[in-house]
Design goal:
262 residues, alpha/beta, Rossmann fold, 4-stranded mixed β-sheet, 4-stranded parallel β-sheet, 8 helices, 15% strand
Length: 262
């Protein structure tokens, strides 16, 4: 069985991340990757998943239960629009809770999230949209003007209407099914899509949780943009460990230092 990476914020145990599934039996692995060690035993749903400081004047704390429900609502919303396994869904926005819900929810639906570089000009974004054959784009207010010409869901306008709350059964992927398609910066030519599989990402996430001895008591400050691999890795690893993400919209020196101090 291959874990759907989009379910790593949910309550179910994940065989790919279990000691047996990964072929390891060390005490550290058992502690950090078991459902209980990942904050997914009793009371997992009330643990803090995200401290959202994307609007510092109005901070939000989001529990794992709330994030899990949001991911399911995104997946159901995509399915209601006819999107299915293998369809590409772009995300063009600053860091925020809805970005993470869209990322994991798209994976749960069997579709493939394509995080877009918010620093690219409209021409480059249009190229990526065509190259990836985007079926839908999640966007925020600051990036509406440069958004490619594809159907959109606006985090700041019609996102709530798009969501379909309620139970959703995640698509069970094959090992080689693609779970994520980030793009290179295009510094030596056109941006190029990178195809990351569910099995490969599940293995990497488990290895990093183990190597970094991540636990649900950890706090991870994410200020790098979520389209970039560094922020994406810390987000996936943090969620898999049951840790809490402290999420900034973008790097801000004052807010970054203040967040560490908290």
């Amino acid at each position: 069985m291959t874990v759907n990476v989009g379910t790593l914020v949910g309550p179910a145990p994940h065989p790919t991340l279990s000691p047996e599934g990964r072929g390891t039996t060390s005490a550290t692995t058992s502690r950090t990757l078991s459902p209980q060690g990942r904050g997914q035993g009793e009371g997992w749903s009330t643990r803090t998943a995200i401290i959202d400081l994307s609007k510092p004047e109005n901070p939000r704390e989001v529990t794992y239960g709330e994030l899990d429900a949001a991911c399911g609502a995104v997946a159901a919303g995509l399915a209601a629009r006819g999107l299915t396994r293998g369809d590409r869904v772009g995300i063009l926005a600053l860091n925020r809770t809805e970005y993470i819900a869209a990322l994991y929810g798209t994976m749960r639906a069997g579709a493939i999230p394509v995080p877009l570089n918010i620093e690219l000009p409209a021409e480059s974004l249009a190229f990526i949209a065509k190259d990836a054959n985007l079926s839908l784009l999640f966007v925020d207010a600051p990036h509406r003007k440069v958004a490619p010409d594809v159907p959109t869901v606006d985090f700041d306008a019609d996102y709530a209407e798009f969501l379909k709350p309620g139970p959703f059964t995640p698509v069970e992927p094959a090992p080689d099914d693609i779970c994520l398609q980030p793009y290179t910066s295009g510094s030596t030519g056109r941006p190029k899509g990178v195809l990351l599989t569910h099995a490969g990402q599940a293995w990497q996430i488990g290895a990093l949780v183990n190597a970094r001895r991540m636990t649900p008591d950890d706090r991870i400050l994410v200020a790098a943009p979520l389209y970039h691999k560094n922020a994406l890795v810390w987000t996936k690893v943090g969620m898999a460990a049951g840790a809490s993400l402290v999420l900034l919209a973008r790097f801000d020196q004052r807010l970054y230092v203040e967040s560490i101090g908290r």
